[in-house]
Amino acid sequence: VPPYKYDRCFCSICGSALGEVLSEEETFPLAANCIDGDIKLENKFHEFVSEKPCWLKIGDSAKQFDEHPFE
Q: What is the dihedral of CA 37, 39, 41, 45, to 10 degrees?
């Protein structure tokens, strides 16, 4: 049994995983490196902050979670 309910989709140009975009959910995760231009969005949160390297500084006021916030 596959671990995903829907087929996973990939960008036809760069091959980046786009997640389960065919699901009935209103949203789906998208890697920030898939975005080519300024889309005027701000992140709502940072997840897995407990696993970030010590040199990585979070420079905004978005809520931070040590783990996944929806589990």
A: -40
